[in-house]
Amino acid sequence: MIEVKQLSKSFKDVNALNSLTFSAPDGQITGLLGPNGAGKTTCLRIIYGLLQAQQGQALINGIDANQQPIQARRQIGIFPDKFGLYERLTVREQIAYFAQLHGLAGEKLEQRVAQVIEQLDIVELANRKSAGFSQGQRMKVALAQALVHDPKHLILDEPSRGLDVMSTRILRDILREQRAQGTCILFSSHVMQEVAALCDRVVVMAKGKVAAEGTPDELCELTGESALEEAFVKIIGSDEGIAA
Ligand SMILES: Nc1ncnc2c1ncn2[C@@H]1O[C@H](COP(=O)(O)OP(=O)(O)OP(=O)(O)O)[C@@H](O)[C@H]1O
Fold first, then answer.
1. Which of 18, 126, 183, 241 is the most exposed place for a label (fewest CB within 10 A)?
2. CA distance 206 to 41
3. Which atom of ligand 1 lies closest to the CA of 38?
4. pTM of the predicted model, to two decimals?
5. What is the residue with the minimal CA distance to atom 8 of ligand 1?
6. In ligand 1, which atom is closest to the CA atom of 17?
7. ipTM score here?
């Protein structure tokens, strides 16, 4: 479970997070939905220990991301908004490199690398270097890197940005598989359809705060709307910076 408690973060005079509080349970997909600039990436970066909050805590399975960053990070797989692949390495080498960074070695490492290659259906790519890969192929390698240490938490920043329909479908299927295995999945998006299609719970963010949270049905009930899209617009007060 990921718990964010009263997180505040400013960049000079920009108040990116303002006492942000929510939690993402295990075995569920939680969507962080908000317009551009709402603070989603800032929040995810604090959870992953890349940024420090001025106030508040981010707990991963009870481990404080700020106080025990390495232990916290071992519990998390991160799928970044840009797939930073090392084009000189083969796919197998890249995934093994990430496994090493997370402390895997020897037979366990070999075993996990082989498993994720199989899981993501990239056996045919495994010995190729990633230069020239399509977006969908890059996405799969990035996901394999995120999952190789078998994390109990998966964080994705705008996961389907730039992906075509087929790749988006594959990504969604993998996220559903991970959910069925009990993984806590938290992803950010400013695309309503994506959130509506995938999420068990939605945390609607605006101006660094939670504007509303709940299941899609609860959000519709809260706003008296039957369509989730209308509910989001009502909660945020505008559709600016949100994509259908
Ligand atoms: N390193 C930084 N330096 C200065 N300001 C920053 C920095 N990072 C984020 N901000 C500001 O903090 C606010 C929140 O940004 P953040 O990237 O977290 O929003 P977001 O919800 O992820 O937006 P988007 O959907 O556009 O990615 C914005 O006003 C942004 O300009």
1. 241
2. 13
3. 21
4. 0.90
5. 42
6. 14
7. 0.95
